[in-house]
Amino acid sequence: MSGQTSAAYLIAPLVSWLVAQGLKYFINSHGSGQDRWRYLYRSGSMPSAHTATLVALSTVIGIYNGVGSGLFAVASVFTLVAAYDALMVRRSGGEQGLALRKLLEQSPFSKDPLPHHALGHKPLEVVAGAVVGLGVGIIVAISITF
Q1: DSSP 8-state class, residue 33
Q2: Alpha-carbon Rg for the chain in angstroms
Q3: How far is Cα 48 from Cα 80, in angstroms, rounded to an integer?
Q4: pLDDT exceeds cutoff 70 at 67
Q5: Which of 24, 32, 54, 99 is 20 to 30 Å from the Cα of 117, by its Cα?
């Protein structure tokens, strides 16, 4: 495998993350004047940049190494664990953080400003991230190969 082809393993996840974060900014920042630039790097929301990044990497590995390779299996398991975490663990933690924030808002001892909470992802946000990652992974792999 050439060095140029090897670069796809880094380029696809990076581009996929940038695309997902850019989409997140355009989808979510309208109408919120304060802190709207934070959507360029904030976790949570539509689409899942974590999922996009890992699906892009898995896609490139699948194209170059084959979907039957051990490396693709490892990347796929890693991707599924991260997607599960975004949907279940981080989502649950985010909902608990939101409940805690509401309690702090009512407390006379609350700190100003209140801490940020990230909700994790809804299933559609993870699926959208996967679609972004798949598309970017394919485009990068094909572009670099030719």
Answers
A1: -
A2: 18
A3: 13
A4: yes
A5: 54
Q: Over the stretch 84-143, which tens digit does the pLDDT of each residue have?
A: 888 876 666 666 667 667 766 777 766 667 666 666 778 888 999 999 999 999 999 999
Domain boundaries, the chain: 3-145
**What string of DSSP letters covers 112-137?**
SSPPP------HHHHHHHHHHHHHHH
Q: Give this prediction's pTM.
A: 0.79
- Of 57, 97, 94, 107, nearest to 77 by C-alpha is 57
Identify whether the C-beta of residue 118 lies closer than 8 Å to the C-beta of residue 94: yes
- pLDDT for 114 equals 66
Tokens in use for 8?
């796809």
Are 94 and 120 a contacting pair, CB within 8 Å?
yes
DSSP 3-state of 51: helix
DSSP state of 39: G
